[in-house]
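User: Please predict the structure of the protein below. I'd like the answer in structure-token form so I can feed it into my own downstream comparison script.

Assistant: Understood. Taking the following sequence of 138 residues as input:
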Amino acid sequence: SASLPATDLSKNTNIQKDPYVLWRQQQQQKRKELEQQEMQRKQERQYIYKLSRMNYWKWMDMYEEQQQAQLEHFLEWEDLEMQQLEEEHNEQLKQIEHVKQLDREEQQQESVRKLEDSEQFEQQKLMEQLKHLEHSQQ
């Protein structure tokens, strides 16, 4: 039985009863199980790594989308603010123009009053001169 190769322990049933052979079989079985566990762990780690990379890129995409949305929101808000400022400015311009118009109208009225006053004054002078003339003729 010494001519049998020591590595193939599963074929000969007499050898399997030897305690050393049993121990070797158990060691080989344990090693296989450990190798399988290690392989499984390695696959799990790769899977987790892949997932984490996917999550990272997904998170980055979400972050970029959020930044883009915030930027768009800010730009919309800025546009609204600019529009509001423009409207306020236009309103102020209208008010200024209105005040200028009132000033012009007031100046025109003042000019008309001055003209009327001067005409009245001239008329009054003429009337006085006329009276004076009438007096002097009598």
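That's the full token string. The radius of gyration is 56 Å.
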